[in-house]
Amino acid sequence: MSYTKVIPGLVRANSDNIKRICLSQGRFRSTVASKQRKEVEGGKEEQQLVECTVVKAVQADLISQTKNNTDAQTRKIAIDFDNTHEAYKSKDNIELLRSLLVFKLCTFDFLVDKNKELMDLSKKVFGKRLFERLMKMTFYGQFVAGEDHNSIKPLIHKNQAFGVGSVLDYSVEEDLTQEEAEKKEMDSCVSEAEKESPVPAGEHFVMQEHDYSVDHREKKYKAHRQFGDRRGGVVSARTYFYADEAKCDAQMETFLNCIKASGGASVDGFSAVKMTALGRPQFLLQFSEVLVKWRRFFNLLAAQQGKSGMDALEQKLELEQLKESLTKLGVGNKDDIENWFTGEKLGSSGTIDLLDWNSLINDRTKISNLLVIPNVENGQLEPLLRKFTVEEEKQMKRMLQRVDVLAKHAVDNGVRLMVDAEQTYFQPAISRLTLEMQRIFNREKPIIFNTYQCYLKEAYDNVSVDVELSRREGWYFGAKLVRGAYMYQERSRAEEIGYEDPINPDYEATNRMYHKCLEFVLEEIDHNRKANVMVASHNEDTVKFTLGKMNEMGLSPTEKKVYFGQLLGMCDQISFPLGQAGFPVYKYVPYGPVNEVIPYLSRRALENRGFMKGSQRERSLLWKELKRRLLNGQILYKPVY
After folding, report:
1. Which of 77, 183, 306, 416 is the most buried (most CB within 10 A)?
2. How far apart are CA 411 and CA 291, in angstroms?
3. How far apart are CA 369 and CA 382, in angstroms?
4. Average predicted confidence (pLDDT) for the chain
């Protein structure tokens, strides 16, 4: 079923650049999941962020890298996370003392709460040069690799020598006031057409400041001034605010330089990008609303067939009943609906599932024609907004073009692209655009990785649906699993604005969701070597859970299908033992000029306060290793590599 059949007169797409990333006709076509999973030799890539400890190797029988050689023997590897000698062999004593100092400072509430003000005061008191030197001896030196792509190379090469790779992340942000951030957000998330158009008959505008949305727009997918500063309640993610198209081009160039630096500094490296840096967030908001409403419409039709409450892929709608329902709703006449399914080869099995349903959305020359939603009351497909300006059309296309450019450069430089997750009101669009890149660029190996936030109630459905699509279409699935960075902000926004809280009820529920998603992907890897996952967690139990499952399934670290990852400067006692045991491990490596990464350093202080107050483990391990070296006369210890 396509819009061209539902809405006659919509213009087909002409731009090759946009077609490659837009939701192309005929891509979500397979109706029944293949029960035969190809068994492919390949690399295994996963990364995980965990609390840190060290490594041991234990002899055991395992399944070989290739599923055809089931009698082959290899090594089952266990990790001793208490072996400080192995954990910190890449650090000299000065680095250990710096870590102890920084982590201790992060436990003092006053210092953490006022860290930004204290850094500004220090800069005035000591002057720029002395301030930068002090920062490089403490917080900057702990959490940031260097000022540019040349100065970070020594650290990257040293980590590589001890088995740890890099995910490069240029961490410079604008240092905006809250008022400036709110203004930028409100200006960039409201359509000019909404501001200028007269109120249509029978509808009304909610006349609040910068809120010009017609009444059928959902509150969740509109900008709200009290949450305009998206940095609020976020401690571990960079935030971009839209200024203009030139700024987006400059940010794309920054990402391109980061990709080139990653390709030149390491083998099989990653580079991190954020969609909100690449265009006006208005499009992400509106496209997200469209995707959610289409899915909700599918759930309504499933409920009519008595199939509500099932996992996403278990909801298979009987085709004849679906046709009848759509006819009754007035979506189309009987002949048209019949052609939608036969002409597009949908429903050949007699049922329609969510992946088939998603194929309703396909490409257009005018990107705004994507923003069409089903009206459940009258059955008509209606535009989300009355119209878009010519400039807004261009802005939407430019965002997709920038995404395409980054993906191509990642391929050319042998770098994998990690698309970061963002707020739930942006995320459906971000995930869909990332999925489109995966369908294009992950045909031969995993290049594009999507990020799944497991504190979301819908995380498992999202992971399972995307894995199933990759299986049907035969491309390499790439995922990074995180717990999530926006919990406090998301909860507060949902409560105040008035929509369902998207977050799991408690930390234990999030842990269960994380392990459920992880186990699902690991099982997919076990049966189909085209899946890849990075386990991004600072939770030691999650790392041990992953290692246990890998051993059970015979997934060897040399396959490079399962990766682990931590932030630079945190949980070295996990990263380095894993790396030295042969597991693919990566550090998220921020870099940028000292004065321009202060917002990043401020968040690291906030994040480490909770981390260090909750566990003395990392500091105790650092002390243990320092004492061991002193007792053994290793006062001037230097790592050898």
Report:
1. 416
2. 28
3. 10
4. 80
